Amino acid sequence: MKPLASLSALAALALLAGCAAQPPFGAFRAGLTQELVDTVDNPLLYVGVEGLGRESTVQPLQELDGVTTWRTPDGTSAISTRDGLVVSTRSLGDDLMAADIAGSVAASKGQGGGGYYPRFHTTLDGLSQPEFEAFQCRVSARTSEDIVILGRARASVRTDETCTTPGREVTNSYWRAADGTMLRARQWISEGVGVIITERLN
Predict the structure, then answer these.
(1) Given this model, what pLDDT does residue 112 score?
(2) Beta sheet of 45-49, edge-to-edge order
(3) What phi, psi does 69 have (nearest 5°)?
(4) Is pTM beyond 0.85 here?
(5) Which domains does the chain have, with CATH numbers?
(6) pLDDT digits (tens, 9 = 90+) for 166-192
(7) Cα 201 vs. chain centroid, distance in angstroms?
């Protein structure tokens, strides 16, 4: 993998770490163009954190045991993904320290028996002690859907899953291409972070 490429043009727009006067959520994504993305040699992922109103691009820092860690241009925030699904976040506040998402990965690929499957999230409480949240999930919809990324239509299969735990129900959505690439995902992370949107830009 090449070293992290210069992202001065992208970094000038916004960062997950935030700034004194943040633009409206979505403004950073709207400002991304194919010309900007073409200046980056490495895989590039858009990340939008709805609950915090933050967005940025990230590039892969390392890959270990099937988990890819992606870092913002200034190195202050990171997410990790497995098969395109977020398994951890760092420096976002109520971070997801780890997640067991094997059932969700299989569901996003159209695999599994169609019944319920577990999903486990680990976060930290106010005393930095681990808290565990167990969900029961099931696929609620699967449809073919063309999505547009940087002006280019991409064919995908969209999978929606509904996950429940006492006092909470969330829906995650995954758009996967025929070659297995996760083109877009919308996933609930934690109470403090809310939903993270990822989109593969190249």
Answers:
(1) 82
(2) 85-90, 78-82, 67-71, 54-64, 45-49, 194-200, 182-190, 168-176, 152-165, 130-149, 117-124, 98-100
(3) -100, 125
(4) yes
(5) 8-200 (2.40.360.10)
(6) 999 999 999 999 999 999 999 999 999
(7) 13
